[in-house]
Amino acid sequence: MIACNSYDFEQEQHRNEVYLLSNSNLVYDRQIAELKQDGDTVYLVAGLSGTLKADRPFKVALMEADSLFKAYNKSNYDIETDRYARLLPEECYTIPSLEGQIPAGETQVKFPVYLQNLDKLSPDSIYFLNYKIDPSKTDAFNPKKDEVLLRIFKENDFSTTRRNIYYNYTTSFVTILDKDNPLVRRPTSANQVFPLGNSSVRMLAGDEEFGEYKTALDRISERSIVVTMGEQTSKNPLARHATIEPYGTIDVIQLVPFEIYDNTFLINIISTPDGRSTYYKEFRLHYKYRLKGSDPYKEVKAILRMEYSPRADML
Amino acid sequence: MIIKSIMYQIKNNRMRKNIVLFGLIGVLVSPLGVISCKPDYETEFEVKTLIVPDKSLAPVFFPLEGGEAIAEVETNVALTGWSASSNATWLSVDKKEGKVIMSAGSNDTYAPRIARVTIEYGHQAYYINVSQTGKIPILLVDGERKGIVKSVSAAATTVSVQVTSNIVLDHILIPDTVDFVHVDAITDVEGSMDEKTVTFKIDQNLSRNARYSAVTFQSSDNYNHTASFVISQAGMIFAEIPLTEDMLSTNAQEPREGPIKNLIDGNPGTYFHSAWSYSIGVPHFFQVTLNDPIEGCIFWYQNRNASGGEPIDVLIQVSTDGEQWSDLSHISAGLPRGSSSQYESAYLAADSPFTHFRFTVNKTSSGTAPRHFSIAEFRIYAPE
């Protein structure tokens, strides 16, 4: 106690230096943009190091950069250029100001990045913003943390690009509509669901597979459908109308509702007599599709289900 | 000795200091213990609770015309401290002291509807499932929801059914695997608002087999309330055309074996053989001259009881005069290769009646034309 008391906590133990918030790889990937109609906001964050709050303001200015972006692609993908991450297109964001200051007594300043048109981003690509500290307009800064890659994730009520989201087939049928070969399959597999826009997702049609994801671009385009959620149904406020359309070249026709396959997205609450409930997000779909014009159609009656917790919803 | 004495004194002094130190600490700490053990008579210990009794959590059913239902709430929380809400616009909730009143208007749709009422206090929530019946939909085909069968002949025709419905009739479903049934017309029945006549076009059945199609009527007013009937179409009836030797001819009769009359002798052990002992430079064929014109036919043949000369690529041509020929069918797959194997064609319809039928062999199991072939039996059938 005596030894500690004699230590001088009033004195700065480090240095007051501006830095850009990021992980050890200089990537800031902790924010997820919601796919709302009016866009969403994420932040570039500049912090101030030191053990004491500064007694004066620190000017911070940012400028566009590309060195981290290039290093990321080279180190992760090397010659696989078609897998390279992309810079966020200009039409998708606005940064009102690249200059600010960390006020005296505070430890950070946030630069808002207004995101819009995120529905134009491919859910299969990685998007970044690359910014660094402008040394000519910034007070003392840490040269090892002067640049950041801001990862842009997007999510809606049904899926996210932050992690892989799977819905499981249950009580589902895929029937080949060929009178000479009327094969019926009962898929029980999982279908990965990707967010597109505010109310739309992409998933594979029927029991199609895209194989290894790294090389699946063409197969995804050929075999995927887009499901867009609309208004609540008049029968059940927990259900929304769903519309099924092709993603790429696939031939898809939405069929009329049939029993439980009523082309809706449903929050399905299954309660036990003791009052406990299990919550599912469910796509209930009825459509037919074919990959080539010469193929017979396959009729799909699908319940795609994902359990979730309304109190700790990850989406 | 002196050093030992000094060390002892030092040790004694330290012990005294320790005793004084621990004594002082004891004096300082003991009141703290007394303070911490003092009972707290000041804190308000009333626990706020909200309970919806089990009997009020039972599902609520409203009739078509709507009404009110009450859920009891046992709580000591102020009215402003808890909430009650409905997730459906058709169901309103009104929060009162000790109860929640749920109100529904009449349901003007033809489908039942459901809602969920949430009564909440803090993290505690109770849910009540509410449903309301809809108007009763009517959808009948010839007076029945299902079970009606309409039987038609193999000829192209139309079928009409009377659909009685008080809901919008906006979906008529014919399975993808059925290509011979088409919706032709939907017409109102005079003097009746709820009846329509729905007419279907039925294509001619060009096969010997009967075929069937279920037709389902569905409404966007209530997709679950369907009506259906079945169309049963008979297969075509064919009659064998009697053939005689003078009706048969060929461009390549083998002189040493297999006269053409063997095609129609009813004996699968004999056969027709085209020329192998000389060459004619063009594909070999045989043909049939009919006494009466026909518009289409099915042909049947049986291969010879030895392998090597089975046709595997055949061109069927027809003619009205035996001079001008038109292609009726080119069959390049599905012809049998085994000895004594049999083949029956699909119905081959011509654009106009014909009296001459030609069977030209482009390829056999042994090679490409001009090449000899052999067949044991041949028959031809026309619709009755």
Kindly summarize this structure in a few lines.
The complex is a heterodimer of chains A (315) and B (384). Chain A is mainly beta and 315 residues long.
Descriptive overview:
The complex is a heterodimer of chains A (about 325) and B (about 375). With about 325 residues, chain A is mostly beta strands. Chain A has two domains: about 150 residues, Sandwich (Immunoglobulin-like); about 140 residues, Lipocalin (Beta Barrel). Chain A is about 5% helix and about 40% strand. Chain A starts with a helix and ends in a 7-residue tail after the last strand. With about 375 residues, chain B is mostly beta strands. Helices cover about 10% and strands about 45% of the residues of chain B. Chain B contains two helices and 27 strands. The longest helix of chain B has about 35 residues. In chain B, about 25% of the residues are buried. The chains are: A mainly beta (about 325), B mainly beta (about 375). At the A-B interface, loops of A face strand 8 of B.
Task: Note the topology.
The complex is a heterodimer of chains A (315) and B (384).
Chain A: H1 2-5, E1 18-20, E2 27-28, E3 32-34, E4 40-48, E5 58-64, H2 67-77, E6 86-87, E7 93-94, E8 99-102, E9 108-115, E10 127-133, E11 147-151, E12 153-155, E13 166-176, E14 184-185, E15 190-192, E16 194-195, E17 200-204, H3 217-223, E18 224-232, E19 239-246, E20 251-254, E21 264-271, E22 277-290, E23 298-308
Parallel strand pairs in A: 2-11, 3-12, 6-10
Antiparallel strand pairs in A: 1-4, 4-9, 5-8, 5-10, 7-9, 10-11, 13-14, 13-15, 13-23, 16-17, 17-18, 18-19, 19-21, 20-22, 21-22, 22-23
Chain B: H1 2-36, E1 50-51, H2 54-57, E2 60-62, E3 67-72, E4 74-75, E5 83-86, E6 91-96, E7 99-104, E8 113-121, E9 124-132, E10 139-141, E11 148-152, E12 157-165, E13 171-173, E14 181-188, E15 195-202, E16 211-219, E17 222-233, E18 238-240, E19 248-250, E20 272-273, E21 285-303, E22 311-319, E23 325-331, E24 342-344, E25 348-364, E26 367-368, E27 374-383
Parallel strand pairs in B: 2-9, 11-17
Antiparallel strand pairs in B: 1-4, 3-7, 5-8, 6-7, 8-9, 10-12, 12-15, 13-16, 14-15, 16-17, 18-27, 19-21, 20-27, 21-24, 21-25, 21-27, 22-23, 22-25, 25-26
